[in-house]
Amino acid sequence: MRKRDLDKFRKLLQSQREQLVESARRAVAGEIHLDPDDFPDEMDAASSEISLAFLGRLRERERRLIAKIDEALAKIENNEFGLCESCGEEIGIKRLEARPVATLSVEAQERRERREKQFGDRDDWYR
To answer: What is the pLDDT of residues 14-59, one digit of tens each?
Structure first.
C-alpha cells in the first residue's frame, strides 16, 4: 500500500478514535444513576433501566471499536495494514475506505459468513 494511502487511513482512524473517546468522556461525565424514589411507577423505572442497559451495550461496542482502531493503527506502524489475516493478500482500498478496521478481504469475509451461516460459528463476529 502506498504511503499516501497509509497516511490517509492513519488520519481517518485517529479521528474516529478521538470521536469515540470524546463520546465516552461525555457519557461518563453525564452518567445517570437510577434512584427508585425518582420514578412514580414500575413502568418508568423499567423503561429507564432498559435505556441504561442499551447505553451500556453501546459503550461496550464503542470500546471494542476503539480496540480495533488501535490494532489497525499498530498495523500501519508495522507496515501490516491492509493485509488479509486469512489469506495474506491485500484488502481492497474500497473495502478499507468503507471499514478501515477490516482484517479480512471481501472473499475471506464471505467465506467466514458462509461458514457461520452453515455451522453457526460466531467466533469473533464483529470483525
So the answer is: 999 999 888 877 776 665 554 555 555 666 666 667 766 777 777 8
Quick one: the chain helix, strand, coil %, rounded to 5? 70, 0, 30
* pLDDT surpasses 80 at 75: yes
In which band, very low, low, confident or very high, does the pLDDT at 74 lie, cut at 50, 70 and 90?
Answer: very high
Which triple of cell numbers denotes residue 21? 473517546
> Residue 92 carries which DSSP code?
P
Q: Which residues contact 48 (CB under 8 A, 6 or more apart)?
A: 32, 34, 39
Query: DSSP assignment of 2-29, as one string?
Result: -HHHHHHHHHHHHHHHHHHHHHHHHHHH
The span from the CA of 107 to the CA of 87, in Å, is 10
- How many other C-beta atoms lie within 10 A of the C-beta of residue 77? 10
Torsion of CA 121, 122, 126, 127, to 10 degrees: -20
Bridge partner residues of 83 (DSSP): 90
Cell of 95: 473495502
